What we know:
This protein is an alpha+beta fold. Helices cover 32% and strands 24% of the residues. The chain is built from 10 helices and 11 strands. The strands form 3 sheets. It has a 4-stranded mixed beta sheet. Helix 1 crosses helix 2. The protein is flat and about 60 Å long.
Amino acid sequence: xxxxxxxxxxxxxxxxxxxCDYIADSILDAHLEQDKMSRVACEVLCKDRHVILAGEITSxxxxxxxxxxxxxxxxxxxxxxxxxxxxxxxxxxxxVSQQAADIASAVSxxxxxGAGDQGLMFGYATNETPELMPLPIxxxxxxxxxxxxxxxxxxxxWGRPDxxxxxxxxxxAHRPIRVEAVVVSTQHWPDTEQSTIREYVWGxxxxxxxxxxxxxxMEVLVNPSGxxxxxxxxxxxxxxxxxxxxxxxxxxAHHGGGAFSGKDPSKVDRSAAYFARYVARQLVKNxxxxxxxIQVSYAIGKAKPVSTNVETFGTGDxxxxxxxxxxxxxxxxxIIEQLQLLLPIYRQTTNxxxxxxxxxxxxx
Length: 364
């Protein structure tokens, strides 16, 4: 019987890279609210007093980029004027051009809309949790989102926006049997006693968010580096697209390398990854596999995928699974229509994973 420990991490919305992702998706949604055919590829960099927006956007929407960025930063919670990085004090620089004409002509072809770029995407599902997600990343997200919720609700007045969580799970025969270790690193106001933070993590956060997986004898590390008073883009530079494993399956599945945030659904990095997850879920929900991974690849400007691949990890008949997957339409326009991806839904995907949330169309 195989036995191993697998670890996944999550980060809060105040993590510098996630600040950038949230600004980028806020800009995307602002364009889709006015023009559902907007072509958006928005990258963001945050550091100290600076927010730099760069990319290619073609849209009829009239968007106040600076206002959108400041509102996103406010929603995250960076509003302290004593910090270099705060919503009212940052300078916002915009370096945005239109989508290249060659790409635009290749992509915009109606029902035969071509893929926005070449590349490969993966979707994964497992029956080890009701959400059909791997347990380590699911629990890490719960801890990170629980921290943010308690901070915003005033439960932890010492809490600040930046945080990271990590969960290590023991597996036997590829089934989770216990949580071995948890790491919680959370930013706090200066002069907060570390004992106060540990008491909250042990007494409130872990029992509530881990539920049945909480055990008194597991290893728990809280702010292992000591004081964590300076965080976010004041402490570290943030850039979009650097949390692709946090955004997906916590390392449990392959990844094609493409990030999600700031990209409209014509970019198959995002839309095809969402659809591959949707198809993998159908395989598991229909009992064709206990675990399933779908790979799909594209060529720029071409609607039909170059390839698809199905892996069931020995938990189901691959040929039956392949026949089942062949019924799904992986062309970009079909994906966008089936999952209703032209709606301004992307801000709700940015933090705590793009998968495993029941309100998202690809999770239904």
